[in-house]
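Replying to the earlier thread about multi-chain prediction with a worked example.

Input:
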Amino acid sequence: MSVLPLEVVRLAIDCMGGDHGPSVTLPAAKAFLERHPNAELLLVGMPDALKEAFAWPRARIIAASEVVQMDDPVEVALRRKKDSSMRVAINLLKSVDGAAPLADACVSAGNTGALMAVSRYLLKTLDGIDRPAIASVMPTQTGGYTTMLDLGANVDCTAEHLLQFALMGSALVSAVDGKDEPKVGLLNIGEEVIKGSETIKRAGELLRQAGAAGQINFIGNVEGKDIFTGEVDLVVCDGFVGNVALKTAEGLATMIITIIRQEFGRSWLTKAAALIAMPVLKRFKDRVDHRRFNGAALLGLRGLVFKSHGAADQLAFETALNRAYDAARNRLLDRVHDRIIAALQAQPSAIEESGGADVSGDKATQVVQAA
Amino acid sequence: MSVLPLEVVRLAIDCMGGDHGPSVTLPAAKAFLERHPNAELLLVGMPDALKEAFAWPRARIIAASEVVQMDDPVEVALRRKKDSSMRVAINLLKSVDGAAPLADACVSAGNTGALMAVSRYLLKTLDGIDRPAIASVMPTQTGGYTTMLDLGANVDCTAEHLLQFALMGSALVSAVDGKDEPKVGLLNIGEEVIKGSETIKRAGELLRQAGAAGQINFIGNVEGKDIFTGEVDLVVCDGFVGNVALKTAEGLATMIITIIRQEFGRSWLTKAAALIAMPVLKRFKDRVDHRRFNGAALLGLRGLVFKSHGAADQLAFETALNRAYDAARNRLLDRVHDRIIAALQAQPSAIEESGGADVSGDKATQVVQAA
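Result:
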C-alpha cells in the first residue's frame, strides 16, 4: 500500500474563547497535533496564558491582547475589541496582497453572535451567497449523523436563501463526510408538496429544480422526526425553526438523561442495578454524547470558520478541530464556491433574490447562540 | 367529608376513527365509564361494530354510516362523507334551536386535517378568534407537563394570533390542570426581547401588554429546551414551529428508546443486565410514555373537540377521554370565551387583526397531522 504524503493543513485556534479558555483549548490542541502529523496550529491568545505551548512542534503562538467574553454584545466584539483572540484568529484566514492566507480554517468556542458578525465583517460572503448560515450535526439511530442548517443565523429566510443553504450544506457533507451526493431534505410539517408556508412551498420548487439539474440530490420534504432516522444526510430549514429544533432536541436529551439518573438513584436496589447495567448505559451515553457532534460550520464566508460549543470540554473541542481539519483538507471552500457558481450559471434567477429584498444589514443576519 | 353530587358530563366519541377503530375505542370507553360514575357516553359509529356496547349503562349508540379514513383528503371528509362517525360526533356539540347540545365534548382519533376542517365548518370559531389552534402536552423532567400550542393548524401566524393562542392556552391549562395563573412563555431563539423575527418581537410586545393587564401570566421568551424543564406551563408558537418541535421531540425519543433496546440486546450479558434493570427502565419508560400525554385540544371553536393520536392504544385513548372530560367538567369553553372577551374589551386593537389580513379560507388553516 503506497502512502501519499499529506498536504499541510493549518488551523487557527482562538485559544481564549469558550467557558474554559486555554484550560480546554490547549490540551485539545495538543491531542489534535499528536493525531495529525500533517497539521500545524496557530494558537491565538494572550501569550502568558499559552506558555505551555511555546515548545510544541508544529505550533506557533499568535499574540492577541483582548478576549471577547461569552456575554459581550456583538457591537463590543465588532467595534471595541479589535485585538481580540477571536478577531486575530479569523484574520489569519484572509489573504493579504494576494498571498495565500496563513490559516486554512479557524476554530473558536467564543460567543456565536460575535463570531458570526466578526467573520462576516472580516471575510465577507462568497459570490452568490446572501447570508452565511450555521450548520451542525445531530446523531441518528443508525449510528451516523444528519447535518442541519441553518441553526440560528437567519430568522427570516426567503426560498432563495433555503436553496443557497442546500447548496452549501451539500458541499459541507461531501467535504467532511465524503458523501458525494448527500441526500437533501427540506424541513416541513408533512411530506406532501402542498404542505407548509408559502416560502417553504416555493423553496420546495427551487430545490426540486436544482435536483432535476443535478446540483443537489433533493429527496423532498422531511419532518422533525426524520432528523434522527438517518434517511437524509442534510436537513435544510430557516434559522428560527432550526434553532428551535436543535434546542428542543437538547432539552429532551437532557430530560431523558436526568430521568434515567433519578430512576437509577432511587434506592440501594436501583443503584445496584445501575452498576450492573453500567457498561450498557455508558455505550448508550456515548452514542448520544453531544461532544461527539461538536463543531458547527459557518458557511458562505470567504474562509472556513468553525464554532465549538462554549461549554466544550477537551474531547468536544478536539471534535471541532477535527471537523475543521477535514473541511480544510477536503477543500470545503472550493466545494461551496463550485456548487454556487454552477447553480448561478444554470438558474441565475432561482438563486439570486428579486430586486427589493433586504439581503444585508442587521436584520438580515441576526445571530443567535446556535451551538 | 361531604361529597357533592357531580354534574353529568356527556362525551361524544367517534368510535370508528384512528388506526384501530372500535377495538381500541370501545374498551377505552368502557374503562372510562367505570372510572367516572357521572359520565355518559354517546358512542358514534356503525351499529354493527358497536354491538358490545348496546347494554352498557350510561352509554348510547348513535348511528353513522360512513368512516373518514386516516388518509382521506380534507375535501372528502368535508363534502362527501356527510354521515361519517366523525361528523356525526362533532354535530352532537351543536345546539339545535337553542336547546343545550347533546354532548359537552367530542373525542376522535381520526385524521387531524379532517377533524379540524369538519369541526371548524360545523362549529365555527368563537368571537375574537381568527383561527383555531391545536394544543397538546409534553412531559417535563419535574414529572409534570408543559402545554404547547399551536402544533400545526396554522403555518403562518401574526402576532395577534399568537396572543389569541396565549389566551386560549391559558384557559386550557387552568381548566384541565387546575392552575389559575399558568405561566406563559413565547417560543423564541433566545430569552432577550430583541431576539427573533419581526412577528415574534411584536407578539412579545402584545403578550407583555396582556401580562401587564392581568389577562395572562407572561414570563417572557423561552427556548426549545425550556419545553421540558417545567418552568413554564404553556409555550406559545406558530403551527409550523410547534409541529417541527413536536416531531423533533418524537423522533429523538424514538431514537433513544431504539438505542437503549439495541444496547441491552447486544449479548446474553447485556440481556441479563436488562433483566435486572427492568423495573427501573420500566419506570423511566412510563415517565416518558407518550400514551400518558395523549389528547390534543382543538381550541377556539364553539365546542370542545379533542384529538387522540391515530395510533392510540386503549390506555392512550382513555387518557384523551379523561382530558376531554376534565375540560368539559371545568367549563373550558366558557373559560376561553371569558378570557377572549376580557382581552377584547381591554385592548380591542391588540387582539383583532388589522383590516386587510387573510383570516379565513383554506390558506388560513392548513391543518396537518399534529398529533
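The longest helix of chain A spans residues 239-264.

Feel free to reuse this layout for your own posts.
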